[in-house]
Amino acid sequence: MIDRFLKRKRDILSKQDKSSKGFWDKPIEKLCERINLSEDYYTTSSCSGRVVLMIDQEKKEGGLLIKVYHDLISFEQLKKDLDEIVSKYKKPIKLKMESCALHVACKTLEDAQKLYDKAKLAGWKKSGIIASSSRFMVELTSTEKLEFPIICEGKILVNDEFLKIIVDYGNDKLKRIWKKIEKLENFLN
After folding, report:
1. Across 13-154, where does the E strand assignment appear?
2. Residues 47, 28: contact at Cβ < 8 Å?
3. Domain 2-187 classified CATH 3.30.1960.10?
4. From residue 69, how far is each of 19, 50, 72, 171 by CA, in Å?
5. How large is the average pLDDT for residues 98-113?
6. pTM of the predicted structure, to 2 decimals
7. Domain ranges of the chain
8. How far apart are CA 67 and CA 44, in angstroms?
9. d(CA 186, CA 189)
10. DSSP state, 17?
């Protein structure tokens, strides 16, 4: 079991990053590196939180994401992007803020429990352990999120005053997420 874990870890960490960006988000990079240095863990996916403008539809498929922000956003940038998007898409568009997410493969159930306990202390409230016959995975997620329709029938649904509030609100949530990432990193020392 342990030899298989180390082999899988080497295989996963030697592969090219499959994310659309092709590299770790800066706020979660140190945490991922710290986890991957341990003999007991390796990361399989990560996101430090993001804000997206996307086509609003039930069925998930490629091409739904129109604009992705992995950093703090400004009112000016969001307004500019909305003005460019409003006439291009016939379908409703939503603004969605997604929390951080981290998937970590663990050598043993005990290792998974240790990581889970530290993550809970660091504020990663929506987390859990997934066990199968072949591996133990810890799925770490925080609770910060936001989602609402922002463009419908060729019209931006909110005024500039509301957009400014949303930018401040979303940026505060991202900063809170990044503090939780840092807190977990400190717990792993």
Report:
1. 41-47, 50-55, 65-69, 93-98, 101-106, 128-131, 136-141, 146-152
2. yes
3. yes
4. 14, 6, 7, 11
5. 95
6. 0.86
7. 2-187
8. 24
9. 5
10. P
